[in-house]
Amino acid sequence: MNYGDRQNNKKKYLTMQAFLKGGSTFSKNKEKTAPTTSKDAKDLKETKKHIPWVEKYRPRCVDDVAHQEEVVSVLKKSLEGEDLPNLLFYGPPGTGKTSTILAASRELFGADLVKQRVLELNASDERGIDVVRKKVKNFSQLTASGTRPNGKPCPPFKIVILDESDSMTRPAQAALRRTMEKQTKTTRFCLICNYVSRIIEPIASRCAKFRFMPLSVKTLGDRLKMICEKENIQCSEEAMTALIDTSGGDMRKAITYLQSASRLKVDEEITKTDIFEIAGVILDEVIDQLIKACHSDSYEKLGTCVKDIICDGHSAMQLITQLHDKIVQMEELDDKQKSIICEKLAIVDKCLMDGADEFLQIMALTGVMMQQICHEQK
Amino acid sequence: MSLWVDKHRPNLLNKLDYHKDQATHLKKLVHGGDFPHLLVYGPSGAGKKTRIMCLLRELYGSGVEKLRIEQHHFTTPSNKKLEISTISSNYHIEVNPSDVGNNDRVVIQELIKNVAQVNQLETSCQKDFKVVVLTEVDRLTKDAQHALRRTMEKYMATCRIILCCNSTSKVIPAIQSRCLGVRVAAPAVEEICKILQNVCKKEGLTLPTELAERIAKKSNRNLRRALLTCEACKVQQYPFSGDQDITEPDWELYLRETAALIVQQQTPKRLLEVRGRLYELLTHCIPPDIIMKGLVQELISNCDGELKIEVVQSAAYYEHRLQMGQKAIYHLEAFVAKFMAIYKRFLEDGIADLF
Ligand SMILES: Nc1ncnc2c1ncn2[C@@H]1O[C@H](COP(=O)(O)OP(=O)(O)OP(=O)(O)O)[C@@H](O)[C@H]1O
Ligand SMILES: [Mg+2]
Fold first, then answer.
1. Is the pLDDT at B121 greater than 70, yes or no?
2. Could you tell me if residue A246 is inside a domain?
3. Which residues of B touch A252 (CB under 8 A)?
4. What pLDDT does residue A376 have?
5. CA within 13 Å, CB half, A39
6. CATH assignment of B250-354, given 1.20.272.10, 3.30.2380.10, 1.20.120.1200, 3.40.50.300?
7. A1 with A114, same domain?
């Protein structure tokens, strides 16, 4: 963990402390989550059998959310009746950000009230300045009582979920800031994004920030095994490891891969190769061939090799990730050479993200490798 | 009369000529009557679209082949009017959102969300979802991709999305996380030969092996191109002969001449001349990255070992800027100027070495 992270964590800790201590604004009530589960069963039956596993196994209550203890503990406090701060969730895809806030809202307000009390705006909705001004404002101005229609208590506020906020323009965020300030009494905001740097500072500083970590090997393993059991499929230990490795901590990806693999192998055990194939991992032979071409000191050989890889449809991003792992381990290169290559790799990565041509970028990278391998004295 | 590429396009998964394993996999995947969102990627002319249509046919039967073209109209938040055409059947809809350029987000927000939300499948159909095929996803703006994210999750019960693109590098991680990737490799040269032979047989023609091989090699593993070339050869000369000329597109010749001009002389005057030629290519809608790659290939064959690497480095540099920038011509010209400088220095060093 670097210094900046630690600072951040400390800050987060302080904000959390402050509000964990904050008195409860409505009566403590422990409505158990039992009703939700029975409702779930009905839900599933209604939507028939074609429900992908990612949705089928989406956490239904806050307790179901794996690996994100910090945020879960805060949300649970609020389920017990404490106040909720404005929230900012950030982290890579498939780590449970959307699921967490949806589950929490359902638990806070119950299935009936949720539609009135929660406004979800995601990137598929128009979210220009006008919408923020009008829609969010109108919604948050309505008062919210502290009881449900059936007389049970619930939090006396509304929640505005702004999912995928990465794509909100700065002016729209600025407009949101004003609304956030004005509506503190009646409304809590929950912003969700992949990159926290896309959120303007005045908004970020008004929220309790929670970083959603890529899920750990153990969490992924446990959940995948649970799914395997429920769906009655066999997955070898090796395949399970491959699944966890290739998903990179993205639970959604892991589950999708598992379901796809289970389709390919009806009544058979899922193997490592199945997973690699589904995940688009490039075979070691291909990478080795490329590295061999870098040793040839022939531009033409290298060119043919790269062209073939691209014609085979391999993703350049995947290629450089796997290449990187190899380079770091290459014994014939000294540290200086490795750092020269890795610096180029970083540039290429950025260029690819910007949409530059894959052939030229990979040639530029492997060209540097070839120079370092064949021409630099150690 | 339709072109061979369309006329002999296979329409069933088990009729696909190559990557048969993958076809079987896809078949198994839809066998349960259901599949995840797909991200189909691979180089152009590798047969992605054909594979997708076969998949849909497998899923819904021949009904998906009754296609209609529709026009849709939208207004952007800033009151600009947009028009986009879609191809659809009763079961699926296909659209290329990048047709409307930077306003593609509106298409996703309005059209795709609507289609996904409203379930208009006939009750006679067994399936409870329809399919949206989005092409050229790598050309979608980031905004449009973000707009897809939640739609892909929320309406999963009624809708599956198939994304089709050349490279996944430009697809944001959040979208990749929501899809199963399907890589369609370009067919190998031998596979292309075989397909050419088959198609000719169906047309009642005999294709000499030698010619088939030459066409296949020239096509850069692009099947569409190979078939078009083969058909063009037929128009030019039939019966075929093994060593007949293979027609090349005009612009490729033109580009090669341009490269020759650059190698011949490195002066401001020549640069101006080359600029005119590049403009000519651009106005004929040849994509700038294709021009760049074509130039690089030609220029490099005139260079020595280490010089080649240097040239490809600067090509990569300027092509990246080209993608980021507004006007392609600036960056193409900058690359040519850079090449001239590198090449001239190389020649002068060579002369100096002689003395
Ligand atoms: N922490 C978790 N515990 C249990 N399941 C999870 C968790 N994280 C993700 N999942 C699984 O992954 C799916 C997607 O999660 P979710 O939609 O919450 O991701 P997200 O963080 O919002 O991703 P994105 O940034 O792409 O929007 C869920 O349906 C669930 O099946
Ligand atoms: Mg989400």
1. no
2. yes
3. 177-178
4. 76
5. 11
6. 1.20.272.10
7. no
Count of domains forming chain A? 4
Q: Please choose, from the candidates B179, B180, B241, the residue with its C-alpha nearest in 3D space to the C-alpha of residue B212.
A: B241
Q: Whole-angstrom distance between the N-terminal and C-terminal Cα of chain B?
A: 67
Kindly give the number of the ligand 1 atom that is closest to the alpha carbon of A163.
27
Three-state SS string over A294-341 comes to: HHCCCHHHHHHHHHHHHHCCCCHHHHHHHHHHHHHHCCCCCHHHHHHH
Strand partners, B285: none
Structure tokens at B84: 């986009």
Report which residue type is found at A293: A
Helices (H), B237-287: 250-264, 268-283
Indicate which residue's Cα is closest to atom 12 of ligand 1. A252
CATH architecture of B4-183: 3-Layer(aba) Sandwich (3.40)
Show which of residues 8-27 on chain B sit within 8 Å of chain A, judged by CB atoms. Answer: 25
Least CB–CB distance from A50: residue in B128, B169, B180:
B128
pTM of the model as a whole: 0.87
A212-266 pLDDT, tens digit each: 999 999 999 999 999 999 999 888 999 999 999 999 999 999 999 999 888 877 7
Mind listing the pLDDT tens digit for each residue in B126-166? 677 889 999 999 889 999 999 999 989 988 888 899 999 99
Q: Is B73 exposed, middle or buried (0-12, 13-18, 19+ CB in 10 A)?
A: exposed
Domain extent for A101: 56-211
Structure confidence at residue A377 (pLDDT): 61
A55 Cα: distance to centroid of ligand 1 (angstroms): 9
* Closest approach atom of ligand 1 to CA A92: 25
ipTM: 0.91
Omega before residue B239 within 30° of 0, cis? yes
